[in-house]
Each structure stands twice: as C-alpha cells, then as structure tokens.
Design a protein that fits this description.
single chain; 490 residues; mainly alpha; two-stranded antiparallel ribbon
Length: 490
C-alpha cells in the first residue's frame, strides 16, 4: 500500500503492483555452468588439435612413423565422422543415463584418447584416438547445453549460457598457443590433462531436476533444485512448473516423431535449419580451423604461421562476445548478411592471393594479406553463421518435433563437417588451394541468396508467433526452447 499526500487535510490511497523480485545467480549455478563449460573447453581443444599438430606429425625428423597426406586428412576428418555417431548416441544416453552421467561418461574416454595419440607408434593409434575423441565430442556437444539449459534460471541463462561457447573458444586458442611450443605428442599429453578438472568438478554438481522428474523421482529433483537455487530459496513453485511441463510434453508426445518430420508443415522449418547448417559448414570454416597452420605455411606469409594461427584464435574468441551483444540488437538476418558478405569477400581475396602465388607472381609485398583475410573471415563467421544456425534451430523447429528434428540437423552438421575436413586436401590437390577458396566463396554467395529468400527474422518474436507464421498454428512454449546449443565457430 502506497500513500500519497495530496493536501494537508486530504490523502488518497491506492495499491501499486509489487515489483517482481530480481533473480540472483547463486554460486551453485555458476559452479554448474563452469563445470560443463570446462567440458566445452576440452571439445574446443579436440577440434583444433589437427591444425598445429599435423605439421609436426608429418615431419619425419620428429615422428617415427609416416603420415601421408591421405592419412593426415583422415586424422582431421575422422573426428567429425565419429562426432556424428556420438551425436546420434548422445540422444538416448541423456534420456536413459541422465544428463550428468552422460557428461561424466565422456571424461575418461577423452583422457584415454589423448594418451593413445600421445603414445602413438603408428598412425593407426592416432586415428583410433581421434575417433574416440570425436565420439566424446559428439556426445558432449549434445549433452552439455541440455544440462545447462535445465539447471540455470532463465533470468541468468543469457549470461551463463555464454560460458560454454567462450570456454570452447578458449580451448581452441589454448591449442593454437600450445602448438607453437609443443609437437603433436606433447600437445596430446596436454589434451589428456584438460579433462581432469572437468571430471572432478562434475562430481560436485547434481543431476538436472527435469531428468529426475521424468523418472518420477520428485524428492531427488527437489534436492537438486534446492542445491542449485540456494538453501533459502522456495523451489516448490518451480518444481511444480517442471512437473507440469513434463506432463504436457508427455501428453503431446508423438509415437512416430521421425515420420512427423516429413509432414509439409514441419518440413519447411526443418529444411531451413538444414540449409543454415549446410552453408555454415560449406563456408569452409573447418578447413580454416583444422588446417590453419598448413594454409599459412603454403601461403608463404611474412608472419610466422604459428603466430598467425594464435591471432586467428584470439579473433575467434573475441568475436564470441561481440556476437552475443549484437544478436538481439540487430536481428538474425542482418548479422547473417554481414557474416556472409564478409566471408565472400575474404574467401575470394584468399583465392586470388593463392592464384597469383601459384602462377609465380611476386606476392611478398602483400604477405600480410592472408592473415588480414583470415581475421576478417573468422570475425565474419563468428558474428553470424557460427552461432545463428544453432540459435535458430531452437527457434524455428516446432515443439512437437524439436527433439527428432534437432537430432537430424545436428547429425547433418557433423556430416558436412566430415565432408569438408576429409576432402579439403583432395580438393586442393585437384583444383588448387585457390580453387578451394573460390569454391567456398561461391557457396557463400548461394548461402546469401538462401538467407534473403527463405530464412525468417525471429528477433523479438515469441516461439508461438514464429510457429504461427510458419505453420499456421500455435503451440505451448517448451521450457527448454531457449537452450542454445554449443557453437565453437567451426
């Protein structure tokens, strides 16, 4: 009740609505976010390993076994192929084992995979290690954001939701920096040490309350939620909301979710999501991340190739924060336009540079150009085509098919990643590195047309509004609809 004095002898009383309490982020939630984000750092390190390691691995003065260009392409390409399998396997695992146990299950295989690579006496050991690592990457890339989305309060999800992406890029940067001082074996042993703090911290945090509710273990769900929100927090309203949301999801669950994907109303948003994933990977980003050192070495850059790689990693890291600030201010399509144009210009520039160099032209006076182009390329990618395909996957896919459709889109993304990384060496051998960059640039031009013609703007729109526009009906908003999957700008 607020009382306002009107005159000395008169007053008017009226009631004003109570202000909503400001959500406070507990230390427990920060610890949970930090724990899963350390797993994200391991994923980033694993993804970037090939770039600095492959050069020393193919040096017979350092390596006791031969790594040909073909086997080297498999060292890079087998990880995303195994990641595809891990992404498919991760779906059932998080449902049956739980989110926390699935994440924990990746830590020890991560360590073993790196030890296999570090102690390798034959290229087959490296390939087995990379395959095991890729399997864990695929499982982690699915389970880490699900855990975070189900444990962090919506009010602070934007802030803490940045941590996995930031730590993933820290892992990439760490790999690039360490690769300047360590050979492939030493780098692998460093990789084996990274999952240890991740493993220890994961034992300290609980399973998600939502998973406990799905298993009818409400007492455990209440304890987990109390740990996350603080001892003094009243968790009963939130727990009831989780239970109600689960009941709604169960009521509307389809027994033939995969067949629902082929319905005309569902096919449009799925195809848009697949298109964004396709153009994300066919921009050539993984060729850049996996083979950065090799590319700079062949460019004959006037700057040391390892230093160039570190600079690219720093730009990749910084661009994450820039994208987070801009996505909800400029809108998705504007950032996709900026991203695509930046990539087209830089890829065409790189192609022209390599074309001149391969034809014997003197390019020593523009030796700085590859680094400048790579910096703008990575910055452009990280602003748009890096995070937005994952973000829009959660926005445009209908709630009824979101799980199965997201699995298809994720598997398709890993498939494209494998194709690009595995065939990059073959493409450069067939049409030259200049031809490869021109090809990626041409794909980006088609991608720009795709965004203009088919991708909707979702900025500031509720999920109900988006679905009403795309499908002509309204649905209830899923409580996990705002989960932002991992994006490591790859």
């Amino acid at each position: 009740m607020v009382k306002i004095l009107m005159r000395a002898d008169t007053h008017v009383s009226f009631t004003v609505p109570a202000e909503e309490p400001v959500a406070k982020c507990t230390v427990s939630q920060v610890l949970a976010a930090l724990s899963v984000s350390l797993g994200s750092m391991v994923v980033g390190f694993s993804s970037a390993y090939t770039s600095p390691a492959l050069v020393s691995m193919q040096n017979r003065n350092i390596t006791s076994f031969e790594v040909t260009d073909q086997s080297g392409s498999w060292v890079g390409g087998i990880m995303p192929l195994a990641g595809l399998a891990g992404g498919i396997l991760g779906g059932p695992m998080i449902e049956y084992l739980g989110r926390k146990n699935t994440i924990l299950a990746t830590a020890t295989p991560f360590i073993i995979s790196w030890l296999l690579i570090g102690c390798a006496t034959h290229v087959a050991m490296v390939l087995v290690g990379r395959a095991m690592s890729g399997l864990c990457v695929g499982i982690a890339s699915l389970s880490l954001p699900v855990y975070l989305g189900e444990t962090v309060q919506p009010e602070v999800r934007g802030t803490l939701g940045l941590l996995p992406t930031a730590f993933g890029n820290i892992g990439i940067l760490l790999c690039f920096v360490a690769g300047n001082y360590l050979d492939w074996s030493g780098l692998a042993f460093l990789g084996a040490a990274l999952p240890v703090p991740f493993l220890l911290l994961m034992f300290l945090i609980p399973e998600t309350p939502r998973w406990y509710v799905s298993r009818n273990r409400e007492d455990r769900a209440r304890k987990a939620l109390q740990w996350l929100r603080g001892r003094k927090a009243d968790v009963e309203p939130e727990l009831k909301g989780i239970a109600k949301s689960h009941q709604e999801a169960e009521r509307h669950a389809s027994k033939s979710a995969m067949l629902d994907l082929l319905k005309k109303s569902n096919l449009k948003p799925l195809l848009i999501s697949l298109g964004l994933m396709f153009f994300q990977q066919l921009s050539g980003i993984n060729a850049v991340i996996f083979y950065t050192v090799t590319i700079f070495k062949s460019a004959g850059s006037t700057i040391d190739e390892n230093i160039c790689t570190i600079i690219v990693g720093c730009v990749n890291f910084i661009a994450t924060f820039i994208a987070t600030v801009l996505i909800d201010r400029l809108g998705r399509k504007i950032l996709l336009y900026i991203s695509d144009v930046a990539m087209i210009i830089t890829l065409m520039t790189l192609g022209t540079f390599f074309y001149m160099k391969n034809n014997g032209d003197d390019v020593s006076h523009i030796g700085w150009l590859p680094l400048a182009a790579f910096v703008v390329f990575v910055l452009g990618f990280s602003l748009g085509f890096g995070p937005i395909p994952w973000l829009m996957m959660g926005e445009i896919l209908p709630g009824k098919i979101r799980g199965s459709a997201a699995s298809v889109a994720t598997a398709f993304n890993w498939s494209c990643t494998f194709v690009v990384t595995k065939t990059f060496a073959d493409i450069t051998a067939a049409i030259g590195n200049h031809g490869a960059f021109w090809m990626f640039g041409s794909v980006c031009i088609i991608g720009l047309l795709f965004v203009i013609m088919y991708v909707p703007e979702t900025q500031g729109k509720s999920l109900e509004d988006i679905e009403r526009k795309m499908m002509g009906r309204v649905r209830r908003m899923s409580s996990v609809a705002n989960i932002k999957p991992l994006s490591f700008n790859m």
